[in-house]
Amino acid sequence: MNGKTTTFEWTVSHFDLDQIAESGQVFRWERRGPENYLISAGDRVCVAYMPAPDKLAVRCPENQAAFWRYYFGLGDPYPEYWRTINTWMERDGPDAYLSKAAAAASGMVVLHQPAWEIMISFVISQNNNIPRIRASVAALCRRFGKRITTEDDEVYYTFPSPEALTELEDLAGLGLGYRDKYIAAIARAVTGGGLDVPMVAAMDYSRAKAALKAIPGIGEKVANCILLYGMGHLDAFPVDTWIRRVLDREFPGGFPMERYAGFGGLIQQMIFYYERRVEK
DNA sequence: GTCCAGGCCCTCA
DNA sequence: TGAGGGCATGGA
């Protein structure tokens, strides 16, 4: 049905699975072995690892190769982004904050994830912490997703459809807190036709953000996360508590957004990773 | 017990 | 336009 499971190997640069895994943009990558991830997106799954620093191996049904290449951003112009970043790193010097963040996060990529899954995941993320977000998303998939066993006997659960999340009382016991009513309302908006996610994803940045912020439970920050991670707007720049601290501490005169026009979201992602994961 | 977590919403000025 | 409080839940 999906074709025989095959291992694809692609040459990559500035790509690091571990950095991406710890960057807060994914909540249900599962580490299986030292350098091995079970990665699910929507109702698809693959196993990914890096046999060499410049090689990404992806094991998936053979007709999903294009999906996963897109998911991992392999067609995106990261060499161009890095030319700009390197220019500014040389100009600012090695001690500058962004130089250190970029050096530490040189394998960061902003993935192309399914918009619906990102929308629900980041509604859950509000006023929450990452371990609990992961637990809630996992519980949501386990209870309302479909159980799938791959040809390699890997078991995973698909991300629930909007139809599966419309009943508020079903959502109890998943640790969602007050966010449960937002999720049920959004699911109902989708199934009822009041919210067309692909249509929002096709809008330009400003119109899409306005449409998202009109949805109960989605404010400025979550809207920017959905735009960045799920709708391909690489210039979206979510400001959460971590980024707020960095901006206040390192850029009291304002963040030089114009330097990174078109890929500010990638810079934001590097800062988030560096700030949380690296000893400075 | 208090504080915080990838915030949002409502009220009030 | 901005400040302040409430909100579910659980770990530190």
Major sheet size, sense and barrel closure: 5 strands, antiparallel
Report low-confidence residues grouped into runs of 5 or more: none
Calculate Rg over CA atoms.
19 Å
Number of helices: 12
Average pLDDT number: 96
Verbal overview:
The chain has twelve helices and seven strands. The mean pLDDT is 96. The protein is of the alpha+beta class and 280 residues long. Helices cover 44% and strands 13% of the residues. A five-stranded antiparallel beta sheet has the order 1-5-4-3-2, with no helix packed on it. The chain binds a DNA duplex (13 and 12 nucleotides) through helix 6, helix 10 and helix 11.
Write the layout of secondary structure elements.
Blueprint (H helix, E strand, L loop, with lengths): L4 E7 L5 H5 L8 E2 L4 E6 L2 E9 L2 E7 L3 H7 L6 H15 L4 H8 L10 H11 L4 H15 L2 E3 L5 E3 L22 H12 L5 H6 L2 H9 L6 H11 L10 H10 L13 H14 L3
Antiparallel strand pairs: 1-5, 2-3, 3-4, 4-5, 6-7
Helix pairs in contact: 4-12, 5-10, 9-10
The structure holds a DNA duplex (13 and 12 nucleotides).
Quick structural overview:
The chain is α+β, with helices and mostly antiparallel strands and 280 residues long.
Features of the shown structure:
globular, DNA-binding, two-stranded antiparallel ribbon, 7 strands, Endonuclease III, domain 1, TATA-Binding Protein, 280 residues, 3 domains, alpha+beta, 5-stranded antiparallel β-sheet, single chain
